[in-house]
Amino acid sequence: MRVAAAASASLFALAALASPHVSHCDVSKLSLPLPNGTTALTPPAQAGTKLKYVAVGLGVQNYTCGASGTYAYAGAVANLYDISCLGRSPLFPYIQEIAYALAEAGPKADNVLDKVLGGARLKLGEHYFVTSPSGSGISPKFDFTKAMHSSSAYVLAAKAGNMAAPTGPADVDWLQLNDVQGELAKSVYRVQTRGGQPAATCATGQFSSVPYAAQYWFYV
């Protein structure tokens, strides 16, 4: 409970710093936190591409257990909150840690994030999976249509690169995603991940939702 209380206090401080400037801060000096020397993920190379939003996502990674007794990926569901205005805060590199601490503390503590950051008008939207345009498999979607009051404020993306999380095997991979549909972003990066990995073995037919947190960087 002490961890949850400390995390909640940190979130209130962050919300006070950011509100009411949601999505209107200068993010041009923020640098995508990729490990030195990595080639698995690359910064946006398209001319004119620029950073638009940085968000913290908190939700679950979903898995189903196959006949082999191991989990297969079944998508994710998460809420995304704008942290673009917190780039100069000393807490910025650790926001996903704060969010994940709440997730680990249980559903009641988890709800604090939505109440604090959502109440400060920092909720950008939702992240979930839909059927791929090809009709086979699933694709990640980032949906900001409600917050932006625009039917085109979404991006349906496809994976362009991935790498194991530098923080260890308990954390889901870092990803580079490129747009397939929508006008929200040309590319999205999932970095600074915490949690989200399933157990090594399972019973056939079992379903698992594993809490996770991450930073999402949106480039337009």
TrEMBL record:
Protein biosynthesis among keywords: no
Domain of life: Eukaryota
Any Pfam family the entry gives: DUF3455
Alphabetical keyword list: Signal
Signal sequence extent: 1-25
Protein name per the record: Malate dehydrogenase
Native organism: Auricularia subglabra (strain TFB-10046 / SS5)
